[in-house]
Specification:
The chain is mainly beta. It is about 0% helix and about 45% strand.
């Protein structure tokens, strides 16, 4: 059973930056996609960004394009999310997910493993 642990959340003001990190307990073999999702109270879980095992496929939600950057290091089984120019609407619980041959769709149902999440709060 692959375990994912997120870190790096916190509170920042509008325009600030945070870097989230996700550490996997072992290599993600099935499908190979790693992604970040977020969910705020009363809203559905939203796919933020996804990256393929080789890093050749990357996809972002329209709401974060140009501000967030996803990356991964297969040698250390980690995936990071650099978040710049943060806005209050980015406030949410951010979760890392892994696996899934259809992970490129950025749909939660195609991801097998999930972390517990890390809170990001952006104040105006």
């Amino acid at each position: 059973q692959v375990q994912l642990v997120e870190s790096g959340g916190g509170s920042v003001q509008t325009g600030g930056s945070l870097r989230l990190s996700c550490a996997a307990s072992e290599a993600i073999a099935s499908g190979g996609f790693m992604a970040w999702f977020r969910q705020s109270p009363g809203k559905e879980r939203e796919g933020v960004a996804v990256i393929s095992v080789g890093g050749t496929y990357i996809r972002y939600a329209d709401s974060v394009k140009g501000r967030f950057t996803i990356s991964r290091d297969n040698a250390t089984n980690t995936a990071d999310l650099q978040m710049n120019n943060l806005k209050p609407e980015d406030t949410a619980m951010y979760s890392c997910a892994a696996g899934g041959y259809l992970g490129w769709t950025l749909l939660p149902r195609y991801f097998n493993y999930w972390g517990q999440g890390t809170q990001v709060t952006v104040s105006s």
